Amino acid sequence: MALRLSISPSHAISTCRRGAAGGCFVGTAAAAAAAAYHQKRGLVTAASEVRGAVVAPVRSSGVETTAAVEAVVGRVTEVTKDTFWPIVEAAGDKIVVLDMYTEWCGPCKVMAPKFQEMSEKDLDVVFLKLDCNQDNKPLAKELGIKVVPTFKILKGGKVVMEVTGAKIDELARAIETVKST
C-alpha cells in the first residue's frame, strides 16, 4: 500500500483542509523527510504520478490544487488523520485493515512485523497504520479507540469489525470473516 501524490515539484504545500474527497499533504521537503522516515520503518509513502486514482483537494502556496491518492496492496502504509479517509475511499470495494498503535506500546511493537508480513501475503486487502499520537487524536477519537493496539476492519468505507490487543490469529480470522460476507 502506498500513498502517492501527483503534485508539481515547484509547489510547496503550506496548509490544506479536508475537502469533499478529503486529503491533506505536506510540502516537497517535508514529504522527502517523511518518506525517508517511513522507508526506515518498513512503511511506504511515495511522491509520484498516479493515474486512475481518487483526486483530493489540497492547498498549495495559497491556491487550492489537487493530489491523487491511490490504495496499493502488498505493504503497510502509514496514514494520518488527513490521509486516512482519502485512502479508504481510494480502496473502493477492497477491505481495509487499520492498525492503531503508539510508539511506546510494547504489544504494538510485537505486532508490527506480523502485520507487515500479513500485508505482503494478503494482496486483496489494504493495510494501514495510524500512530495515535496527539496529531492524530481527532481520528483516533472518531474511530473510538480505547486501547492499543486496536485493529479496525473496514468494508465499503465503514468499520465492520474490531480486534483489540496483540492477537494476530484473531485478526486473521476477522479478516477472513469480513471477506466471506
List keywords for this structure.
181 residues; alpha/beta; Glutaredoxin; two-stranded parallel ribbon; 5 helices; 9 strands; 28% strand
How does this structure look, described?
With about 180 residues, the chain is an alpha/beta fold. It has a single domain (about 5-180), classed as Glutaredoxin. The protein has 5 helices and 9 strands, in the order E-H-E-E-E-E-H-E-H-E-H-E-E-H. The protein has helices at about 30-40, 85-90, 105-120, 135-140, 170-180, and strands at about 5, 45, 55-60, 65-70, 75-80, 95-100, 125-130, 150-155, 160-165. The strands form 3 sheets. Strands 5-7-6-8-9 form a 5-stranded mixed sheet, sandwiched between helices. Strands 1-2 form a two-stranded parallel ribbon. Strands 3-4 form a two-stranded antiparallel sheet. It starts with a strand and ends with a helix.
Summarize the structure.
InterPro entries: Thioredoxin-like_sf, Thioredoxin_CS, Thioredoxin_domain. Helices cover 30% and strands 28% of the residues.
